[in-house]
Amino acid sequence: MTSQYCQSIFVVVMMFCSHTLGIEEQATHLRGDHVDISMLRRNVDDGHPTDDFYSRDLACRVDMVGLEGTYYYTARPENAGTVCATYLLAESNDLVEIEFTEFDVDCSDPENEVQFFDGWTMGYGSFPGVDDHPLTIAERVVNVCSQRSRVFRSHQNGAMITFKLTDAAASFAFTFRPIHNPEPCNVIAPEPSGAHTLRNYGNERNCSFSIIYPVTIHIWEMAVGGYDNGDARLRCHMGLDYVELLEGNSLDMSAMTTEGSICGHVGNIVRQNGDGDSLNRNNHIVPGESSCQSDAFSVPLMCHNSVIRLVSSSQYVNEVSFRFNRLNIARSECPETDL
Hints:
Blueprint: H1 3-14, E1 20-23, E2 27-30, H2 37-40, E3 54-57, E4 62-65, E5 69-74, E6 84-89, E7 94-104, E8 113-117, E9 120-121, E10 126-127, H3 137-140, E11 141-143, E12 151-153, E13 158-164, E14 171-180, E15 187-188, E16 194-199, E17 206-211, E18 215-224, E19 242-248, E20 257-262, E21 264-266, E22 269-271, E23 284-286, E24 298-301, E25 305-311, E26 319-326
Parallel strand pairs: 3-5, 4-6, 15-17
Antiparallel strand pairs: 1-2, 5-14, 6-13, 7-12, 7-14, 8-11, 8-13, 9-10, 16-26, 17-25, 18-21, 18-24, 18-26, 19-20, 19-25, 22-23
């Protein structure tokens, strides 16, 4: 990564780092903004993509990690007592795994803190939300000093390390490895534009795709719940299984505005028969209803954060496929009170 691009990342992130937020177990995370993960895959010297194992020092107070490799931090007097955050981001179908290979921190000093957070938080709220993650917030915050094992793995493709070191001699190093996730549920978009499919794999759980940009969402295939749309065109009626389209200026989905709730069938989808097993040979492809063509459903989401959330009971094998394209707008069109 070139020094010029490092500076641009810092400027973008710091625009949203107006304050810190304490959560349970004294976890403190900074407000930041998403960085295109493809831009993180750069060689320090020439700026070209590389497949070599990557290694570099971490910055304080905000840094982003998206490339497999080893990362180092050594405390400096000017950063003593400063809360620093490193955002870790893998591809959509991966989990984040880190292993501390060096850890020279005086854990007897309560002023020294190094924590792993299973997810992301930026100022207000966290992703995944408290209703969508298998662990409580307290369980998602891990004090590295209190753990015998120094290997940590997330439940989704995003995680964080936050640290505050007062000892000028303190240092640590960790290796970042993406681990394949066979059933990805909650995802932080690794690119500002692209396509993705959310699935519940027949389970009772909520899965969300969070894009830290204003975007336009295009639904192009969907099989959610047992409702056949017909002339209703994707509208939901008191169902337990549906898709929400949310927008807001933070990661807190409870504070976001719902721009639509949809369900039913559209596009070329797999109708589930028998026991609902996606591998059931009785399943067959059927075309979407002519009145429910995906081109008819496109929604602009104009805030800092855009979310597609699949809410599922265990009654159906649900999936929704969509495209998302970043909107070229200068600032969020959501009320500033949402910040």
